[in-house]
Amino acid sequence: MNEIRTADSLGLSREDLPNSYIGRSVPRPNLPKLVQGRATYTDDVVLPRMLHAAFYRSPHAHARILSIDSAAAMLVPGVVRVFTGADIAKVCDPWVAVLAHLKGMKSAPQYALPLDRATWQGEALVAVVADSRAAAEDGVAALEVTFDPLPAQTDMATALAPGAVVIHPELGDNLAFQRTAVQGDVEAAFASAHKVVEARFVSARHTGVTLEPRSIIADFSRADDTLTVHLATQAPHMIQSVLATQLHLEEGRVRVICKDVGGSFGIKVHVYPDEVAVAAISRILGRPVKFIADRFESFGSDIHARDHVITGRIGVDAQGKILAFDIDDLTGIGPYSVYPRTSAVEGNQVVNLCGGPYDFANYRCSTTVVLQNKVPTCQYRAVGHPIATAVTEGLVDMAAHAIGMDPIEMRRRNMLRDDAYPYTSPAGMRFEGLSHHASLAKLLELVPVDRIRADQTAKRHKGVYRGLGFAAFIELTNPSPFMYGIGGARISAQDGATVRMDPDGSVVVASGVTEQGQGTETILAQIVAHGVGVAVNKVRVVTGDTQNTPYGGGTWACRGAGIGGEAALQSAIALKDQILHVAGTMLQASPATLDIMLGEVVDKTTGTPRISLAEIGRVVYFRGDTLPKDLPREFVQTRHYITKEYPFAFTNGIQACWVEVDTATGMVKVLEHWCVEDCGRVINPMLVDEQVRGGIVQGLGGALYEHCVYDEQGNLLTTTMADYLVPMAAEMPEIHVGHVETPTKESLLGAKGAGEAGTAGAPGALMNAINDALRPLGAVVTEQPFTPARILRALDAI
Amino acid sequence: MKWPAIGYARATSLDELWRLQAEHGAAAQLLAGGQTLLATLAFRLSDPKILLDITRIAALRGIAVQDGVLRIGALTRHAELGRDPLVAQHAPLLAEAAPLIAHPAIRNRGTIGGSLAYADPAAELPACVVALGATIVAVSPRGERRVPAEAFFTGLLQTALAPDEIIAAVEIPGTQPTTRSRIIEVARRSGDYAMAGLAARLSLNAEGRVTSPRLVFFGVGSGPVLAARAGAALDGWVLDSAAIAAAQAALAEDLDPPADMHGPPEMKRHLARVLTFRALSPLLRASEVAE
């Protein structure tokens, strides 16, 4: 472990080292506020002179806009103004979402509101601004918009075929991006293989359903030429830069404030055209304008994700050694790549991650990213990981079955050795240190495999079909500029923290990473309390304000703890050093002989209290005249952190899923689920476990229920919570979580990301469990979600 | 979405309701539990000018037994159905159905009258009242009218109610010691509308012979579907595996389900056969089960 003094590392109990907070489950300081309904979500913010926006959204998947008549809408009481695409374009430039390092990628210019053509059902076309949301909706209802409906390109399989509707003629075709990674000699490996197994997998288009919908208030002040934006977002600084650029403002004159956020899951890390339109409207009107997406319009305008069809082959030798993977991924992303992260990243991740846990030599994987007239897709929790993991682990299980090998033994024989690092995967990913075998061993301590197998056999005699499935995975966390920065996006991979001590000895940390309801502020408080030497309840946390926090990237790709946490730790240690320097002068002692414990400067060896931080604060801030003139006394320290050695800090883990399939109805009941993951140093075990559990639930949701269903004309059929089925508590199993800790050596904290591991592995483990249950009946399912209809079809029951 | 601006009036008696209805005509919409109506208003799918709140009309409330008939007031909430001792005693099928209806928040608000009047084809209560041979008591300024449940549901979201009628109550004939009832369904998640469901009631005499069976399916048609041929395949026969199989086979004629988001018609037919077996097999005699 990296050298941080924790109770564990010293062999002490936490009572012996009372302000050792790293590795400890402390309650979330912001929890009372959240559960008492006293949080400040964007919709809770009410500003003087504020207006409300509502959008007329396209009823067609693809149509030319012939006319927009707003005369009747302008007569609706309360309506202030109606804005079309042309109105917005006067103050707001379009954008093109490509990244330079995704070679050959193309996308069309996207306007906040389109000028003359709708390209997906649900696309915002006209904005009505009124003195209440209800009046704005009345105005939307009074708009007269006429269309010339155009044929829609909906099926990704025909997107590149002759005769396809080319959505943006200026692009020439519907191909947004294509990449193939090749390593070794794949064909020779398959030719020499003992067994080759091939399968087709489908990952259904789904979306992230946040409790709090997308929310924005844009407030342009003509008096001081500043745009203040209250926004539910994961990346305030990114949005600051985008809005400044698109609206021709100086970046320093745009401030993004993001107080409490009710869940993000990647949904709130993108630039949404309707939100940019709201900012443009405020720029034009000089008044605050609020837009809160309702659930209905969220389904048709929040990003979707994971719309992939994948064919895969695996070749193994007679001993079960994996010789090669050959994988071909096709994904449909909607009519535009989403700004600024682009919609090619998910397919690119599939190429990066397939086969990830295994030691094999020959690899070919391609992704083809095509346009279609559906809601744009982009990065959603565990981007690409659940797809890559399900394909890899589905193939590994099928290969194990083909050669008659136990799936656990198959994995044990092929997983990268725990002493193999550093290691570069056939896909080119560099691993600093992973723990596949230790994680498998830990998983097998948790999963009673023998008892489960005995139960499985006994139940089958009674016509009850149960199955156990496994899925090992890797997860990309702590991204460097290699993720977006090198592609030209102004998205910071660096993050900062400022830690200060006030006269009463309390500590404030301001951080560039953000709180989405997942507990970022809790771990920041823990890290800073640990680093400075104060009780955790003496630390206040400031996040989500571009004017009051160090510049940073925010929360995405599991970087909050690993990047933001390290910056907080380093600045806390720097503050502690500064405090001890002043204390040493006051006490006429060497700072090296002093320590800070629970807000008291103590003698390091004996623990004897010498002086409190509050007393030091009093002297420094109010009686600075009593201190030596040349004594540095800045009780505020800022440190930034960026990963430098590795493009990403990969984590790993393995999940197991135990299900019962009702073969008469096709219903799947998840009985129990396990996950062992290695996110490096665990800062708050309770929060990490809950992140893993929540991620697993989201993974199971996508694999069992969640599906954005379209008809052939591109009409979205799942636009309510009665049709779009999210996982609910009643259907979720007991979830057991275990950890192996392999800290990254790049940072003192040693933390990697933990937020996406659950989602990465759950669908694959579930699929393998279902297929394990169905195996005696000769049925296999590989198309998510695993609905009753699909299972009954696989069983030839319908 | 936000509701359009809308008027509201509360009627505290039927007479007051008739007066308000006469005043507002087609622009008025009744509000009881509101669990369907309020969502359609938010989606702006209907555009009433005024809501007439009937929840304080005493004549529409209450659960009582008179002359062996259980009368359930239209305003009875689903949660009340689930806990009322008279319902449990005289119409246990309804008590068994209550927990299958959506989620607690909806059961606390939704009413039996609202559910029957809306006539959702996948809803539990319409199927239950048909299975129980209940009578729907409709009331209007013209007086009361009794409609057999079987004749009440006339099509997709359609009922036999005249425009000026409302449901006052449901009357359910008394049960006999030989009466057996059961409701089961297959839903994607607990609380969802069923992909297919079955409310069944029959009498089983001492010899195990079935009389007056009523198998009513929901989620498989345009309303509750009384499976007459499946019933006929059971009626008068000793309930055994062969009788169940005959009922399952007869469903091919009884059901003509539409496709929905969850699957094709053949899936619903399949599920109906599975539900028939699962509803009836617990009633098999021990000797049958042992086989």
UniProtKB/TrEMBL annotation, chain A:
One Pfam family assigned to this protein is: Ald_Xan_dh_C
Gene from which the chain derives: cutL
Record-level Gene Ontology MF annotations:
iron ion binding; oxidoreductase activity
Q: Which residues form the Aldehyde oxidase/xanthine dehydrogenase a/b hammerhead domain?
A: 36-151
Signal peptide, first to last residue: none
SMART domains, alphabetized: Ald_Xan_dh_C (SM01008)
List the protein's name: Carbon monoxide dehydrogenase
- InterPro entries to which the protein is assigned, alphabetical: Ald_Oxase/Xan_DH_a/b (IPR000674), Ald_Oxase/Xan_DH_a/b_sf (IPR036856), Ald_Oxase/xanthine_DH-like (IPR016208), AldOxase/xan_DH_MoCoBD1 (IPR008274), AldOxase/xan_DH_MoCoBD2 (IPR046867), AldOxase/xan_DH_Mopterin-bd_sf (IPR037165)
Where does this protein come from, organism-wise?
Neoroseomonas lacus
Ribosomal protein keyword on record:
no
Statement: the UniProt record of this protein carries the keyword Oxidoreductase: yes
> Which keywords appear in this protein's UniProt record, sorted alphabetically?
Molybdenum, Oxidoreductase
Q: Species lineage, top-down?
A: Bacteria, Pseudomonadati, Pseudomonadota, Alphaproteobacteria, Acetobacterales
PANTHER family attached to this UniProt entry: ALDEHYDE OXIDASE 1-RELATED, XANTHINE DEHYDROGENASE
TrEMBL record, chain B:
Look up the domain of life of the source: Bacteria
The record lists the organism as: Neoroseomonas lacus
Q: Which intervals hold domain FAD-binding PCMH-type?
A: 1-177
Q: Which Gene3D superfamilies match?
A: 3.30.465.10, CO dehydrogenase flavoprotein, C-terminal domain, Uridine Diphospho-n-acetylenolpyruvylglucosamine Reductase, domain 2
Pfam families reported for this sequence: CO_deh_flav_C (PF03450), FAD_binding_5 (PF00941)
Asked whether the keyword Flavoprotein is assigned, the reply is: yes
- Annotated Gene Ontology MF terms? FAD binding; oxidoreductase activity
- InterPro entries from the UniProt entry: CO_DH_flav_C, CO_DH_flav_C_dom_sf, Diverse_Substr_Oxidored, FAD-bd_PCMH, FAD-bd_PCMH-like_sf, FAD-bd_PCMH_sub1, FAD-bd_PCMH_sub2, Mopterin_DH_FAD-bd
Q: Name the chain's protein.
A: Molybdopterin dehydrogenase
Keywords of this entry: FAD, Flavoprotein, Oxidoreductase
* Keyword set includes Oxidoreductase: yes
**Taxonomic lineage:** Bacteria, Pseudomonadati, Pseudomonadota, Alphaproteobacteria, Acetobacterales
